[in-house]
Amino acid sequence: MGKLFTWVCITLALCAMAMWYRSLSFADRADWRGKDQIVSVRSIYGRLQFSASFFPPGAGQGAGWGYRGGYFRTVQDRWEPSLWKTVGFEVGTGAYETGATGGMWLRAKWYFIAAVFMILPALRGLLGLRRRLREDIE
What is the dihedral of CA 133, 135, 136, 138, to 10 degrees? Predict the structure, then answer.
């Protein structure tokens, strides 16, 4: 079972690296619009962003799913310079969409996501190497 999880993690890390490369020039956005809220997932500018934004009652956002994608040249970087930006992961609260009264968001750089998925394969590799070295010594 451990080998299966290791290969799943390697596959997910490779997918994260592919999305990292893709998001440097192509933006993807999937939305779910409720009566007074929008939940969105974006992949843009080397990062993955989840956000939920809340609007005043009757703001008329409509309901349903939506997807938008396209190439871009420049991006307004809303992520202020900080230790969290350097690490590549941040969670916060506040309005993320224009006209929203509140909300919450999570953003992670694709390289951070790839690195997290590579922890298990790296540990398994190191433990396997350690085991082989012990066997050679004995």
Answer: 120
Structural domain count of the chain: 1
| CA distances in angstroms from 1 to 4, 6, 8, 92, 124, listed in the order given | 5, 9, 11, 36, 12
Return the closest-CA partner of residue 98 out of 76, 83, 118. 76
Give 10-residue mean pLDDT values along the chain (138 residues). Answer: 88 96 94 89 94 83 87 83 89 84 92 94 88 81
List of residues 6+ apart from 134 with CB closer than 8 A? none
State the pairing for strand pair 47-54/37-44: antiparallel
Strand partners, 67: 30
Residue span of the structural domain in which 38 resides: 2-137
Q: 29 burial class (0-12, 13-18, 19+ CB within 10 angstroms)?
A: middle
Amino acid at 5: F
Residue 90's beta-bridge partner residues? Answer: 107
Alpha-carbon radius of gyration of the chain = 20
